[in-house]
Amino acid sequence: MAGLWVLLGTLAAAVVAGIVLSARNGRIRKARTTPIPTAGAAESVGAEQQAATLPEPVSAVLAPGSAVTLVQISTTFCAPCRHARAVLSSLAERTDGLEHVDIDVTDQPSVAHRLGVLRTPTTLAFTSGGGELFRVSGVPKAADLLGALEPHLLPRIERGSHSEGA
């Protein structure tokens, strides 16, 4: 009889864990409020100075001409990473001022550690100056992501629409 209770308890815990993980997957979270640690970095780092404190593989891929760069942190054998890559690259192709890059941290786990990434895929949205806007753990939902990006892309879109009509 005790074995049955252990089995039921384990199943209940698994169901709760599955529901929690499913609810958190693809949810947009605020940017880190603490600066990314580096040797000798100041206690508070502004958004303009943040690019200098980012790991080199990340700061090297930030697109200076884009309003926002989506940096996807992936690993080699991550199946959801392929789905996230498809969602993000499609969104970037259709959206003016948005770039997408994928960084594989399989052989460079220190990059994920310095960014505070605990699972893959994780997508970080950065300004061209290196300021983190927000992050998404898991496969992002395109509509939610576009809604979160809209305030950062809207001025660029409005300028583009005025120049097209002229």
Automatic annotation (TrEMBL):
SUPFAM superfamilies per record: Thioredoxin-like
Biological source species: Prauserella marina
A Pfam family per the record: Thioredoxin
Coiled coil: none
Gene3D superfamilies found in the cross-reference section: Glutaredoxin
Protein name (record): Thioredoxin
